[in-house]
Fold this protein.
Amino acid sequence: MEDLFRRYRKKIQQVSTDFVRSFIHDVNWNARLIGIKGARGVGKTTLLLQYIKLNCSENLETALYVSLDSFGFKDKTLVDLADEFVRHGGKYLFLDEVHKYPNWAQELKNIYDDHLELKVVFTGSSLLEILNSRADLSRRAIIYHMQGLSFREYLELETGKKIEQYPLEAILKDHVKIAGLINDKIKPFRYFNSYLKQGYYPFYKEEPDLYEQRIEEVINMMLEVELPLLRGIDVGLVPKIKQLLTIISESVPFVPNIAALSQKMDMHRTTLLSYLHYLQEVGLTIHLQKEAHGNTKLQKPAKVYLENTNLMFVLSSLNINTGNVRETFFANQLSQKNKLSYHEKTDFLINNTYAFEIGGKDKSKKQIKGLKNAFVVADNIEYGYQNKIPLWLFGFLY
């Protein structure tokens, strides 16, 4: 325990709170059991450490942060850790990377049931299963999903200025006014292209020259470690999944032809659909479904996008399609708090209510003519007009 406390205090000293993600305010920290899921690299560890530093600094011994992939945690069980921590007066236990611990779900359930005075926060991969046959945590834990930086957060990091976020309905109703307020404070065009290339993952600030290399490492860790660990994928099949990811990155966007793709990749249709599903689960792609009924793992998605635009510039830097970049940005920024679906006539259907057609500044309203609650989302414009809205403005949703 002494060694864990030493490591924990060192991490708290090193973490900066100069910039804190707005996501920290979305979490109900008063809950007894909180789970934060998210793709590797989006900032889950930093969020935990910042919360501790901001809220427990006057009494650090009542809190403890432990990374379950750390050598300092070897030869311990979560239950034993919690028991000892509570005996020493512990009140707030933060467990990072729980998916690295084999029996995490059952032991968290036991801790929750045995220590009514203890609050536990845990983080894990996007693949983390909260429901399973042995320990149903869904009735006990409040689960949150964390994404990378929004365009708004990137602007805050780059400029040091506090910028308000806006819900979707406010943007649709008052986008001209909102765009004016933002442009009076900052000129988003100066930063938009940089964000699309190198601004989604918070670690872009640390070593900009190594950013693409670090994204490649993130992808490899997801495919070579997390998928085999959490989905039982044979490591020898990972190159096939990488091949599929590259095909998606070079498409405009990717509209799966399962029969042709199965033949090209020399794999069974069901296996291919499973791989597509795993890519979405691990947080590398976003899928649009026509109708999501039953087991989506075995359903063919209507469209597939990479999860964020930064991935595009790493995986297919020589085959970047502007239209795909625009649609990927839109899908990514809306996916945090909204439901995305396929639309027969436009690019996206959001929350089963709003239709969106994405394009450049000269994009016409032809494809939304006669549609209710339909909008054109245009790149390379500072201000919109009526139901034509600037693309960059959808980066202020979270």
Notes: The first helix runs from residue 2 to 14. The first strand starts at residue 33 and ends at 38.
